[in-house]
């Protein structure tokens, strides 16, 4: 008999939409593919879904990449910026205040990011400063567009440069398609 803790699972794996399993504790880079990442990120809503309208992690990711492109970053930086949240396709998007309380999640995220770096030949660690800068710039844009009733000051927001970009609010399918299109333009390998 299965316990409630293990019901519906096979060890530490999840079955992804592509039909295969991915181990969350020891991810095999060969099991990761860009189509699965794009589809999952297209369905994940930023800010835990607490927004005035749907806005996906996939759109956030390619918007960050768009900022890097505006700033004429090298393609290797843009690839890393595009894939900076790819681990969330397998682990889910956890809002920052909760993530800080879950050290085991952070360890799993690091493992998944290592597998993503190996699978897609991107350097998330070496480009961490650029990733963080574009992530924060988009966070500021998103907060202003999606959390319009929030007048509370957020830590260090005045230090983040303003960027003049508009959000498209694409559907999950549109966001995933755009993510894949941007990835292809940057030479990110699709997968099997």
Show the helix and strand layout.
Layout: E1 13-15, E2 21-23, H1 34-43, H2 57-70, H3 75-82, H4 88-91, H5 96-99, H6 103-120, H7 128-146, H8 172-185
Antiparallel strand pairs: 1-2
Helix pairs in contact: 1-8, 2-3, 2-7, 2-8
Characterize the structure shown.
Residues 56-120 form the HD domain. By secondary structure, the protein is mostly helical. The chain has one domain (13-185): Orthogonal Bundle (Hypothetical protein af1432). It contains eight helices and two strands. The chain has helices at 34-43, 57-70, 75-82, 88-91, 96-99, 103-120, 128-146, 172-185; strands spanning 13-15, 21-23. A two-stranded antiparallel ribbon has the order 1-2. The longest helix has 19 residues, at 128-146. The radius of gyration is 17 Å and the shape is globular.
């Amino acid at each position: 008999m299965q316990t409630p803790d293990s019901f519906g699972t096979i060890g530490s794996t999840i079955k992804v939409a592509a039909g295969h399993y991915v181990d969350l504790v020891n991810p095999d880079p060969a099991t990761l593919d860009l189509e699965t990442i794009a589809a999952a990120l297209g369905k994940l809503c930023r800010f835990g879904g607490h927004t005035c309208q749907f806005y996906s992690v996939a759109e956030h990711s390619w918007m960050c990449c768009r900022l890097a492109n505006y700033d004429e970053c090298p393609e290797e930086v843009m690839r890393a910026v595009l894939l900076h949240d790819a681990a969330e396709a397998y682990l889910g998007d956890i809002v920052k205040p909760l993530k800080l309380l879950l050290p085991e999640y952070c360890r799993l995220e690091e493992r998944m990011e290592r597998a993503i770096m190996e699978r897609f030949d991107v350097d998330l660690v070496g480009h961490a400063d650029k990733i963080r800068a574009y992530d924060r710039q988009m966070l500021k844009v998103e907060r202003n567009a999606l959390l319009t009733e929030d007048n509370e000051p957020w830590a260090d927001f005045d230090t983040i440069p303003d960027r003049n970009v508009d959000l498209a609010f694409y559907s999950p399918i549109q966001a995933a398609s755009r993510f894949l299109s941007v990835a292809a333009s940057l030479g990110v390998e699709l997968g099997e």
